[in-house]
Amino acid sequence: MSLHYVALGDSTTVGVGDPLNGSSTTDLSGAGARPGEGWRGWASLLADSLASSHRVTFSNFATSGATVPVVATEQLPETGDAPIDLASLIVGVNDTLRSTFDADRIRDDLDLIAGRLTARGALLLTVRFHDHGQVFGLPKWLRRPLWRRIEQVNLIFDDLHARYGGIRLDMADYPEVYRRDFWSIDRLHPGERGHRKLARVFADELAVRGVPIDVPPDLDCAYRPPSRWADAVWMVREGAPWLGRRAHDLLPWAARMAVAQFARPAAIRSSGVPLPPATNAEVQRLEA
Fold first, then answer.
1. CATH number of the domain residue 91 falls in
2. Is 244 part of any domain?
3. Which residue has the higher pLDDT, 109 or 279?
């Protein structure tokens, strides 16, 4: 049986965090990396396992730093128009970290991508994102608005799954997602253990769907989480500069969202009438 598998997405699908040379230190951005440039990652691990039972054609179009519009306008056209059996689509976190976040644009672009891939026969592989703020250990005032954005992306992917089907993993279902050894030194990209886990879970789900895999992705790895000293050194050299660049973009928005969160309970107390949860439209107005 032959399988044509295409992977689209951002640095996680590039493989950042799972270096081929076994190093435990990575650049937060992946230095603009593309697949094969020193990274392996979950998609490649899954493709290798699929090849244990099938003739596999694997094309990874993911790019580091990609947002949903980038996948729609740049990566999707690269896939051509031939039939596809499997297509992974993991993207959206980079969108939540930008002041240009636009849930409506994300919804339209993801629907376009999924529609075109499934029209060519693809079984979609997607995820529901976990709380990245918990992994980072962010303060609640910043973690909550970031989670609200992530949940908006999750709800869009929920609708996508309901419409187009496929395999949908909820990352929050796996307790190890909140363990340090799941992540590379930047805590944004999975480490080797995290990439192997993602590949293995997708492989197990594919097997349930009738796609046999003789040799599933191995969960054993040599990766060890960085020491506290390595964490500290990385934060000074790489993390702080990156946070500084993102803070210039995100902090004004996060501050507005934090004020809005405190204002709503205050309004409830003063009026005595409970307010409904903030709608997506309200969130968009607050972010404007």
1. 3.40.50.1110
2. no
3. 109
